[in-house]
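User: Predict the full complex structure for these chains.
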Amino acid sequence: MNPLARQVVAMLFNSSQPVAEAELSEALGCGETEVSQAVEEVEQALVEGQLGIVLRRVAGGYALASDPETEPAVRRLLAKPRTPPLSQAQAECLAIAAYLRRVSRPEIARIRGVNSESPMATLEERGLIEECGRSRFGAIQYRTTPLFQKLFGLESLDSLPELSEFEPDAEEQQELREKLLRAGEQRVAQ
Amino acid sequence: MNPLARQVVAMLFNSSQPVAEAELSEALGCGETEVSQAVEEVEQALVEGQLGIVLRRVAGGYALASDPETEPAVRRLLAKPRTPPLSQAQAECLAIAAYLRRVSRPEIARIRGVNSESPMATLEERGLIEECGRSRFGAIQYRTTPLFQKLFGLESLDSLPELSEFEPDAEEQQELREKLLRAGEQRVAQ
Amino acid sequence: MSLVDHEQHSPEPTDGMTALGISLDVFEGPFDLLVTLILNEDIDLLEVHLAEIVLTYVERLEARGELDLEAATEFLVLIAALLELKSRLMLPGEEMDGLDLEPQEAVEELLARMLDYRRYRSAAEALHELLAAEQGYRFRSAPLPPELRRVALDAAGKAYEPSLLADAIGGLLRTPPKVDTSHLNRVTVSLERRLAHVRELLTTRRSFSFDEAVAGADRMTQAVTLFALLELYKGGELTWKQSEPFGPIQIQAQEAAR
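Assistant: Here is the predicted structure of the three-chain assembly.
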């Protein structure tokens, strides 16, 4: 690998965020063409099945990552399969996503009456919810994941506990959604 | 690189701490001999001036680090030095803690002849020393941390140069002795 | 001499002996420098009043009301070293016999301490060099990729009770009861009770003064009583008059309205 490529590897190695080509070019003090060539050289050297590390082109630039084939070993060494107790906020967000099947952040905020960015981010990071397209208003929608079902011991979302205890009529998701939104608005109005 | 070596690279890449050979061996599910061979293969592939990343033996394990030749470019990208420098007082406290293995603040004060609360607090804050119980007189004892070994490139505390290497030479000692005696005589003469 | 260790890179000292603030302004630095300076007569230890340092320290300790054992020990170690040094310097050679220390021995002991410090000072220099040489090796510090921070799907087992979801959604479906704020501002005076009290007076006494109505009551009760009187005045149940500002208020039942 030539010196420019080595420097690219080192820069990506030390950066926890993807690095844009322009940033590489500025730090190296050379033109974009040379950087592109260097990146290409790195990409060829760090191809899957070669060194255990690969070059990824991601939004925002380039990043190094471990080769997917090594994941089981890395997981055995480092992954701490933690399932810490859910906070009230997390449980509420998760319940809304599970019972309504799909929900956007603004809807969750309206139902809960508070901004719910932080519990949603945690749930997403723990792999309990995931994005699933956009609503007709353009808001990102979320749904629960297969991992969620496993961690709650559910065969499907239909095996969620009945809500009859709380709301005998709310069988349909649409109806439930409206009730939740009404209750949320009343709470905020108080 | 063979699969075992690739997995070693990936594990070290993802680990924020140096990884001991036994840990590698356990995660890979193979014997120490095979791990040693794999590590050696990694070390040869990641020799300085090759890929921009090198293998380091530090703090009782292995870690990946960027090649020093790439440091100027990395520093331009990240805009900060790796470790802020130590003050003289901090370095002295750190040396005493490293050579004595465990030491209390009063002991350090006795050796340095000055109060050492402030440099010790800074070293602790920077994660270079940590508390390790109390002496039999009840004073809190401190020792250096694995981070200290990592940042100073030490495989273990035994890789520090022998303290006897820092023995002032005979001439210097004699000079000091004479100076002390002379001063004593001056006092007596007064 | 200053017992304060002036650290350029460290945060403000917050506790312990660094707060002692003795400033003799003649010395600041490590042990062998102190010894050397004293022996070279750059600082005259005989002019350094150690007793004053001790007194200042004890006073400070008293003012603080608590003993930081660690800092106290550090102080004792240092003051003891200074006392020892000073006593040796003050005693002429012949009188050293009393201390069972030959001048030669005293010199050797001081020398040993100086050499000890010098070894660590050199070791510190070596550490500086070591660190400088290592500056080029940067270690990666990035969080684990998300897929490694969560449980693998195949390895996942049941960890949570589904009922916690039902409870959460159930809670959201209910409009919570009105928030009870009584603990925030405990109202101990009730207007109704004061109204009843005034009406009672109106019935039994027909006429009474405000002071009588609030005899022995606190300010809050007085205010609420005034409010009750206003309420009854508005309803035509009473009339009242005050002949001069801040003078007594006389209350009279209003026959017609009753």
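The longest helix of chain C spans residues 103-134.
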